Amino acid sequence: MPFYVSLKIKDSDNQKSKRQKKRVATNLQKLHSELLKHFIDSGSETDVRKSVRIATWNLREFGGGKYKGRDFESSYYIAEILSHFDLVALQEVKADLKELKKLLKILGPDWDYIATDATDVPMTAGNGERMVFLFNQRYIRFRNIAGELTLKEGTKIRAAFGERIKLEDRFFHFYS
Q1: Which of 1, 49, 73, 101 has the greatest number of CB atoms lying within 10 Å of its CB?
Q2: For strand 111-115 and strand 87-94, is the pairing parallel, antiparallel, or unpaired?
Q3: Which residues, listed in sequence order, are joined to residue 148 by a DSSP beta bridge?
Q4: pLDDT digits (tens, 9 = 90+) for 60-99
Q5: CA 46 to CA 43: how far, in whole Å?
Q6: 0.85 exceeded by pTM
Q7: Which residues have C-beta within 8 Å of that of residue 13, sequence separation ≥ 6?
């Protein structure tokens, strides 16, 4: 569960800040309930020892760009959604990782990440973006080896994704 400590209303907060924190906290409770309801209604496995929840999310220019980053409120909603998964591939994360680190602070100490290189030239097809894999360390373990797979033209991966995953000691391991 994410850490929402900074939403605590302080005596030193102005009225606008107090209203904003209250609104965000109320909306987070609703979002949390709706996400749980969605997983239950969809028949998703709720026993974490039997399943891992994997997601991918294109956060459009996360960490800058034309939109200058996410505001205070949206960071909490993003964290709440991500917290319902164990492994998340975030797309379009900008080279500057300040916003990602702010998000990780909200998610809490159980969360970590692995990031690809950002494209070098901001105006190229890659737009100075990278892919980031967020993972909940309570369920996902990184084995300290990362690589890029490039297949020869016309070559295909023959094993289905499910045949390359093995559950050992409550952790999923990927094999080629």
Answers
A1: 73
A2: unpaired
A3: none
A4: 878 776 666 677 788 999 999 999 999 999 988 888 888 8
A5: 9
A6: no
A7: 21
Virtual torsion, Cα 138, 55, 69, 136, nearest 10 deg: 0
Tell the residue number behind the tokens 């097809």, with chain if given. 125
Tokens of 116: 């690809």
- Three-state SS at 66: helix
**Residue ranges with strand state E in the chain:** 54-62, 87-94, 111-115, 129-136, 165-168, 171-174
Cα 154 → chain centroid: 33
What are 104's two structure tokens? Answer: 């990780």
Whose tokens are 């080279």? That residue is 95
Helix (H, G, I), strand (E, B) or coil at 167: strand
The pLDDT tens digits of the residues spanning 79-88 come to 999 999 999 9
Query: Token match 């797309």: residue?
Result: 91
Q: How many helices (H) and strands (E) does the chain have?
A: 3, 6
Domain ranges of the chain: 5-141
Instruction: Dig out the tokens for 84 from the structure.
Output: 């319902």
Answer yes or no: are the C-beta atoms of 107 and 3 closer than 8 Å: yes
First to last CA, the chain: 32
Read off the tokens for 99.
Answer: 């916003």
